[in-house]
């Protein structure tokens, strides 16, 4: 009998987790749990119910292509926006003060070096945080099944993480979890979890179609829509997040 980890919800084969003390350790997230608290993983299972389209997700299935997209805009951007506002105000004020002092009668080589380093580091922080905020405000993620390709990209502002998979070779699509780092409580750990949409090809190769989504429901919806269009029967896989 296989077990399902109660923390990350992945399948763990029994011979991988059995320990002499009667506990089990998940090979995926390293969580330790009593074997009786894990869920059995039957060889066959009933089809999962269809996932309702999330409110912020859009779908176009009117033509020859299936296109699904969603905006990055969310309340999670608020802390970043506050940081950008406070940091840029501090950076401009302190930078102007250092420049004035450097140009004054107390100027020296040490003060000049400090000013250059501060402006260089401060500009880098402003550019990175500012660009991240702009992408969060204006970017969308698009997944498109067109012809024989499954493609994913972000835009309109450039961002890393595009994907391209051959649709005829996809044997299964599934949701995988990236478990958050150690935290004081399980709730805090779950805040750092993210989810990937994986494509398993006919030769066993795994391709990440969508990476690092905070909402598993989005991944589940995209998975089901692509499987429906490709006529793929849903199967349970060992490293799948069982929602």
Question: What's the layout of helices and strands?
Answer:
Elements: E1 2-4, E2 11-12, H1 14-17, E3 23-25, E4 32-34, E5 39-41, E6 57-60, E7 66-71, H2 78-103, H3 109-138, E8 140-146, E9 149-155, E10 163-166, E11 170-178, H4 186-191, E12 194-201, E13 206-213, H5 216-230
Antiparallel strand pairs: 1-2, 1-5, 3-4, 6-7, 7-8, 8-9, 9-10, 11-12, 12-13
Helix pairs in contact: 2-3
Explained architecture:
- The protein has 243 residues and is of the alpha+beta class.
- Helix content is 33%, strand content 28%.
- It has helices at 14-17, 78-103, 109-138, 186-191, 216-230, and strands spanning 2-4, 11-12, 23-25, 32-34, 39-41, 57-60, 66-71, 140-146, 149-155, 163-166, 170-178, 194-201, 206-213.
- It is elongated.
- Residues 40-44 and 181-190 have low confidence and may be disordered.
